[in-house]
Amino acid sequence: MAQKIERIDTIPLIIAFLNKMGVQHAIDSVFVQHGNWSGLSYGQLAVLFVTYVLHSLTHHFYGMESWVNQHKTVIERVTGWKIAEKDATDDRIGKLSEVLGESDKGISDTQLLIGKNIVSAYQLPTEIGRYDTTSYNVYHHPEDAKSGILQFGHSKNHRPDLLQFKQGLATLDPAGVPIISETFCGNRADDICYLPAWRRMVETIGTPDFLFIADCKAASQEVRSAISHEKGHYLFPLPMTGETPRRLKQWVLDSEQSFQEIVLEPKPDQNEKPRKVGKGFVVNQAQQTLLDNGVVYQWDERCIVTCSYAHAQRQEKSFAERLNKAESKLSKLKPKEQDTVESFRVKAQKVVQTYNMEDYLNLDITESATTKKKYIGRGRPGPQTPFEWVDIKSLTLETSRNEEEIDQFRALAGWRIFVTNVDENKMTLTQSTQYYRDEWQVERGFHRFKNGHIPALPLFLRIQERIKGLMLLLTIALQVLTLMEFVSRRELSKNNEQISGLVPGNPKMKTSRPTAERLLTQFDNLHLLIQEKGKRITGTMVEDLTCLQKKILSLLELPEKTYVISFGMGQKKLATN
To answer: What b/e readout covers 159-198, taking b as 16+ CB neighbours within 10 angstroms?
Structure first.
């Protein structure tokens, strides 16, 4: 009798989520298999790859084949698929990603099917949607910038020397579940992405009746008018360009303006007191624009003018540091012999510009001349040594602070204007502040791609279709993690419960907001003992499921039979009761 052991871990759990999300059906419905393609379908291979990514914490294609061989029996029994020897090679995964990334419409259609399914299957709230973009820098050769999505551009990672591509992500509150992702060129402007992303979100959710939140690049009048005209709602901060600084200065420094205190209530799972985070006021105004069809469209808009105490403190601290550094550097700036007043002034102004202090420091350069005796000839001069009188010019730099401008900066520190078309009866000033402060939910998804559980970097792919296909698959993996968090937290909140045992070294620590990573970690090191006697194969689980593991399955709305596997005519449990 031959025996072997395979690790089970989180594989049945992840596959159960992917099945409920309808990933295989969505991919197989959109992408038609090539006539020479055999074995696992595109959708089946995609499910297998996402499971590999979440289980192994890597997306590298070359490790897929050995991973499948190590868990082949478990995967086949859980899925019911027959996996051939070369069904999961790096070549096939590469070809799959290339097929998925060949058409932007194919990616959009796949995400539409999956998005609609998870909204329905998991009853996701759709009141608030968010969108943001980020850049991914890669260490590819500059020749790769000749074509494709890898280009030089403004790097949000402060690496303008590296090629990059950009990724857009649209999520739903409260767990940041992504429903849309988009991969585009690294030199493409973000501004043009927001309106198409909003329309795709509307198609996925099925209604424009949700609050769309994004950063200041989405706040163009074109985007705002289009969303309002199409019965949508938005909340954007205005960029500090154009007329915005003048309007902000006019409204905030108006002595007759009355401010309202912004007090944020703690969330249900937080044991905190209400805290004052800022102040603000609202200015109502009418907007109008000319639509593409030539019709003048008018709508009511509220300008929510708020001051964040924490942001004001950070701005004032940064301003004081820059001011002191600029003054220190100017005090050490010495003119050279050949410098004129104008050339020395240019040097001083460069220092001021480096620290962005043009409006706050005044420069005054004076030129003075003195007469000095200069001996002619070599050696030590004596009473009879000839000499001449020469004029020596010197430059003196004096700096002074523009106290009026500095006081004005401090008065405006922390202030910002947000615009929305939502009525004040539906969204108060305090609610708008809380909504925008939750923008970290999209950033958390980007963090998981860059430094977390679903690493997209380092990236070794160069074909742009493969990069797009990979990011589609990694987005599906991100959906799994965020859905796990949403479902488990919702179940805990229903009964006002907390769960313990998730934190290594502190088993008694309780939380009502478990992370997906810590939930999955609890299923590590589960093993299946496989016995082969002739053609008869049986399997039993080496370890029993613990009470904590059963509790997690319950929170994830998965039955214990998730860890039950079929062998031949009968069934052998991967978990015992």
So the answer is: eeebbbbbbbbbbbbbbbbbbbbbbbbbbeebeebbbebb
pLDDT digits (tens, 9 = 90+) for 475-527: 999 999 999 999 999 999 998 899 999 998 898 999 999 999 999 999 998 88
What are the CA-CA distances from residue 193 to residues 56, 190, 223 (Å)?
Answer: 33, 6, 10
Contacts of 444 (CB under 8 A, 6+ apart): 176
Decide: helix, strand or coil at residue 511.
strand
CB 306 within 8 A of CB 418: yes
User: Mapping DSSP to helix (H, G, I), strand (E, B) and coil, where does residue 526 land?
Assistant: coil
Residue 378: CA atoms inside 13 Å, Cβ hemisphere, count? 0
CA angle 466, 70, 78 (to 5 degrees): 85
Strand partners, 133: 168
E-strand ranges in 106-253 read: 128-138, 163-172, 177-185, 211-213, 233-237
* CB-count exposure of residue 24 (10 Å: 0-12, 13-18, 19+): buried
pTM of the model: 0.88
Contacts of 568 (CB under 8 A, 6+ apart): 536, 537, 538
For 412-432, give one letter per residue: b (16+ CB within 10 A) or e: bbbbbbbbbbbeeeebebbbb
The crossing angle, in degrees rounded to 10, of helices 244-252 and 403-412 is 90
Q: What is the pLDDT of residues 122-144, one digit of tens each?
A: 999 999 999 999 999 999 888 87
Residue labelled with tokens 């000499």: 387
HSE toward the beta carbon, residue 271, CA cutoff 13 A: 4
Contact 133, 190 (CB under 8 A): yes
